[in-house]
Amino acid sequence: WVRTPVQQELFFQKSFLFCLSHTILDLLCVCEQLPIEDLCSLTSQSLTVALTAAVPESTEDVLLKGFAMLGMENERIETAQQFFSWFAQLQTQMDQDEGAKYRQMRDYLSGFQEQCDAILNDVNSALQHLESLQKQYLFVSTKTGTLHEACEQLLKEQSELVDLAENIQQKLSYFNELENINTKLNSPTLSVNSEGFIPMLAKLDDCIAYISSHPNFKDYPVYLTKFKQCLLKAMHLIKTYTVNTLQNLTSQLMKRDPSAVPNSDNAFTLFYVKFRAAAPKVRALIEQVEQRSEKMPEYQQVLNEIHQCYLDQRELLLGPSISSTVTELTSQNNRDHCALVRSGCAFMVHVCQDEHQLYNEFFTKPTPKLDELLEKLCLSLYDVLRPMIIHVIHLETLSELCGILKNEMLEDHVQNNAEQLGAFAAGVKQMLEDVQERLVYRTHIYIQTDIIGYKPAPGDLAYPDKLEMMEQIAQSLKEEQKKLPSEASFSDVRLEDPESCNLVKSGSAESLNPRQQSTISPADLHGMWYPTVRRTLVCLSKLYRCIDRAVFQGLSQEALSACVHSLLGAADSISKNKTQVDGQLFLIKHLLILREQIAPFHTDFTIKEISLDLKKTRGTEQLLATEWDEIILHSCASRSSGFILCSPAMTCMLVLISCALFLFSLERKPTN
After folding, report:
1. Are 603 and 549 a contacting pair, CB within 8 Å?
2. 279: closest CA among 321, 320, 324, 310?
3. pLDDT computed for residue 82 by the predictor
4. Helix/strand/coil (H/E/C) assignment for every residue in 58-73
5. What are the domain boundaries of the chain?
6. How far apart are CA 265 and CA 276, in angstroms?
7. Which of 178, 284, 176, 190 minimizes the C-alpha distance to 236?
8. Which residues cross the membrane (predicted)?
9. Over the Cα atoms of the chain, what is R_g?
10. What is the rounded distance in angstroms from the CA atom of residue 46 to the CA atom of residue 52?
11. Backbone angles phi and psi of 11, in degrees to 5
12. What is the pLDDT of residues 336-382, one digit of tens each?
């Protein structure tokens, strides 16, 4: 344990006082035994000796040190009074020494008290300062809050003003563009192909659209009029550039070598190559006009003018060339009408397709004016072909023309490319109607002249001599065939009539009689038919694919009626020249031929006339119908011998049955 300096000093003082107290007690004991005078006579030497003898050496050292500490090392106690004084002083000193630590603690605590008082004063002062600061803070906070609110209000007002200014500036920007656009449009260096022209055009459109949507603005009509004027200037520049480009192309092509053939392939190729090469120069501008044509009438008007200019230039180039080409084709195929129609139509098909493709090089939206131009160009072909058509008298030529126009042109070409060949289709349909009209007209004449007005030659009425002669020829050929089996000519005596087969095939794709596919009798050859029957069937086969079903039905009824009348007349002549049976068999044979050959047409050949009431004979009709097959078989077996084996009763029966059934097939449906 380490003592502090103060503690060491106190310990030393206590030790000194303890030793001193024992010494004093010893002295007091001695003094009580001595009288007072002796006490006074005691010398310091005797005291010193006594003390020295009585006090140990360590105690003496302690006392010396104690006297030294009391500042009395040089003093001597010679009397009791000095001793008591010294003792009182010593006691006082001891009292002081004993209360020193308390005083020191008191002083120490007093120092703390003073410090606490100082701190308390500082705290009170700080509280006062804090209270003052709080008051100042509240004041400043109030002022700051007010300032903040004022600033926020100012910022809000500033933001509103900025937005208002921007809004006003945005609205004014459309009006301010007027001067810039005017300056650009009035500039002599402005070109429609420059990079800034299309953006300027877009800005001009935006300005016009914005001003048009705000008629409540000040000076609205003035600015709208000025912007419209700028738009008209821009449209005029576009139109002028495009029109000049197209006109320059046309003038360059028109000034080509005059010695060149105007309708040659090279000339037509040049017409398209030059225009295709120039298309990119104006396509971008035309596309801008097309995109805006639905929004503003000014653009639509300019687009219409550009369309008209383009089509005028194309007509100026193509018109003479097409006319000369058609004239050349006419001179080359003057006698072949079908070749002329086919080549002329093929030429116009190429022209229409090429014109549509060239138009798409310049424009992106279609126009009906192009088809109007192509129809006008097709009229040059129609004007040449129509006079030729109305002078054609042969049904074969007219029917072939109908097939070319209807099948090759309309069905093959037009249906596969209806969009590009719409104008061509209109011309072909008009031409087809003319051909059909001419065909119907010539058919009427043909029926009157070649069927009704037919005058039979003696050979046409040589029945049954012709049949017997043909049968004899067939028999002789068979005999020769048996003698020469290795020869392939007339094998199996298959006397087929290719003309007859073609006749049926031209009328329909199917044949109802299997005898056309197998060996037939010489009497059934096409050449053995009565001429009016042959002509009627040939005429119907030509008409079947060429005209409408209703028209064909009417003509077929007329032709069949005329044919039946001619057969009746021929049968009467045969009956007069030969026998009545021969005439009736002739009539039955050809009525059956007619019935068989008109079946593939699938047409109602009934003639609508006043009907007859045959209710009483209905049972007889049913009986005849059930026995018809057997009668036909018997008739066919008899034809090989030229109808010679038929009895008069059978002949009359066949005549009645044939006439009744054929007339019923031509009879009009009963009407109430």
Report:
1. yes
2. 310
3. 75
4. HHHHHHHHHHHHHCCC
5. 5-121, 187-332, 337-448, 466-483+497-666
6. 17
7. 190
8. 642-666
9. 72
10. 9
11. -60, -40
12. 999 999 999 999 999 999 999 999 999 999 999 999 999 999 999 99
